[in-house]
Amino acid sequence: xxxHHSPRSLQLTPNTLNQLQKLVQAHRTPQAIAxxxxxxxxxxxxxxxxxxxxxxxxxxxxxxxxxxxxxxNETHLLTDAPRSGAPRRFSSEIRAQVTALxxxxxRSHGIPLTHWSRAELARQAxxxxxxxxLSANTIGRWLTAEQIRPWRxxx
Length: 155
Known about the structure:
Number of helices: 7
Radius of gyration: 23 Å
Number of strands: 0
């Protein structure tokens, strides 16, 4: 009798399975990693499950399930792929400072506006000693990535 494994099934060694279970259970494991480990564990435990069933069980999108199963098959890693392009020019601390600024009303900085524009945020950042010179475009890109649109806020 020849056993056939669907492309979905992942044969894990007991050791690998054990490591994945530890990752899922450890409180210090970042959420994203724990979820990916859980997916690989489910793929092993339920080789007959469809992508849709796995997505439903983990409350994730089917494309996410396909991506992380493929990544595991190719690399046996649960971490994100290295970022493409140049290294970040500005630290996450600087980004966080700008985001915090964007989330406060201009009036709290003595600026008589109801909401920030990208240009006003860049101008305000330029007056902040702890921040480097930033373009309105850079600030706009960061806030869009964070899904923050101060120019749409109305108090």
